[in-house]
Write a structure and sequence with these properties.
12-stranded mixed β-sheet; 12 strands; about 20% strand; elongated; F-box domain-containing protein
């Protein structure tokens, strides 16, 4: 038996003795030395019992063992004579959490929830302590043929999805584990996308719960779905638990919602984190100058606010902040074309370029960080019809 296996067996034996005595896991150096001496004094036969418990429990969780059917008085070896279910039921919860379950890949935890009520409670109560598996993309979509919502998972950037969940709220158990169970032991690291036609209100409470469990650690959120019946309080709570790494927040043209749902106060905590690089509003929101005043100047920043209530004075302050800031960063800002004339009365651009946006010609103003120096960082302001 390897040194690693021997150490695991000793750890399980030690934790079992402490659990029975009510001392819990851990302990000082003297206790460890005493326990090690007691372990060394045990016979190999006694040690092997604990080694087999560790080995059989791990195999059982992986699905590698089945209950053995005994024939007559045939004498089986130790691994054949122990019922795996008896082994698992005899181990204290903390031993399973600290030593057995971490040996199983988190992708199988959703199936373990279905083994028994004990495992469901164990995996639920200790989800924060158990390892999580990272994946890059979570997309919520709508099946237009059969009229139901579903979620797709991806662990790569190839564009192909590796998993699908049709039991979003736990009401379709015939379709497998619920979304909450599937994501409880995983961690979203890149993109959260709500596609056109999806009903966001149906999963808001689940998403908030998962965000609190630190399962949603994405860097990008893209809303392309209707947001009716979603409250500002729900969005605020969701953002408060999952926006620490957010660098892109986008509301696409089909992200239909009540005017006033998105406010400066709602976006302010995300901006305060200092990571937000891109803020896109392709549909009317409720943002005004304070959001522009607070937006962090990070290299390659990009704001699309042509349908927001931004004033010429707000754009002028943003230009001055860009020039006075110590950071050497470039970026882009898109505002409504109605601001072009009044803004020209406040400031003159260093350069003007004619651009085309979906067949419509618009002007782009260029401001150099050092006025007149084309080699310095640039701020491009594009004017677009709302």
């Amino acid at each position: 038996m390897s040194v690693e296996a021997s150490q695991t067996a000793f750890s399980i034996w030690l934790d079992a003795n402490r659990s029975r005595s009510g001392e819990g896991l851990g302990g000082d150096t003297n206790v460890g030395k005493t326990a090690r001496a007691e372990w060394m004094a045990m016979s190999e036969e006694e040690k092997n019992i604990w080694r087999e418990k560790a080995n059989i429990s791990a195999q059982c969780l992986r699905g590698g063992l089945r209950k053995v059917k005994r024939k007559g008085n045939t004498k089986n070896n130790l691994s054949e004579s122990i019922d795996p279910s008896d082994v698992l039921s005899s181990l204290p919860p903390l031993i399973l959490v600290r030593h057995i379950l971490p040996q199983v890949s988190p992708e199988y935890y959703a199936q373990l929830h279905l083994v028994s009520r004990r495992f469901h409670r164990l995996l639920s109560d200790y989800s924060d302590e158990l390892p999580k598996q990272d994946f890059e993309c979570l997309t919520f979509n709508h099946d237009w043929d059969d009229e139901f919502d579903f979620a797709e998972f991806s662990r790569g950037y190839s564009g192909s999805f590796e998993g699908k969940c049709e039991n979003l709220d736990g009401s379709r158990n015939d379709k497998g584990p619920s979304l909450a169970v599937l994501l409880r032991h995983q961690r979203l690291t890149d993109e959260l996308h709500f596609d056109q036609g999806f009903e966001l209100k149906n999963v808001m409470n689940t998403l908030i719960h998962l965000a609190k469990q630190k399962c949603l650690c994405m860097t990008s959120i893209e809303f392309e779905c209707p947001m009716w019946d979603v409250t500002r309080g729900q969005l605020k709570e969701l953002f408060s638990h999952c926006s620490s790494r957010l660098d892109t927040l986008s509301f696409e043209r089909y992200a239909d919602f009540e005017r006033g749902l998105i406010t400066n106060a709602l976006i302010a905590p995300i901006i305060a984190n200092g990571c937000l690089r891109a803020l896109f509003f392709y549909c009317p929101g409720g943002l005004t100058d304070p959001t522009l005043d607070r937006f962090p100047l990070i290299d390659d920043f990009h704001l699309i606010l042509h349908q927001e209530r931004i004033t010429p004075r707000g754009v002028y302050r943003f230009i001055q902040r860009f020039r006075n800031d110590q950071k050497n960063c470039s970026g882009q800002l898109m505002v409504c074309t109605s601001l072009e004339k009044p803004l020209r009365k406040l400031i003159t651009p260093d350069d003007v370029r004619l651009t085309e946006f979906y067949g419509i010609e618009t002007y782009e103003w260029i401001f150099y960080k050092i006025p007149g120096d084309a080699s310095s960082p640039q701020l491009c302001i594009e004017f677009k019809f709302d």
